[in-house]
Amino acid sequence: MTSFHSSNDFLLFFRAVCVHTIILAIKYFFNCKNFLIAKQNLSMKTISGSG
User: Fold this and answer.
1) Which stretches are transmembrane (predicted)?
2) Mean pLDDT across the stretch 9-25?
3) DSSP conformation letters of 12-38
């Protein structure tokens, strides 16, 4: 059972992957939010511009 000694490395790797995934998810969420806000602003501008 000496191979089980590497479980600590696995935990570190797993935690790093989790943190990386969370950061990516947050970035993706904010990018979508910014994109939706920009899209909304654009449609508002076109509506007010044509009016």
Assistant:
1) 12-30
2) 95
3) HHHHHHHHHHHHHHHHHHHHHHHHHHH
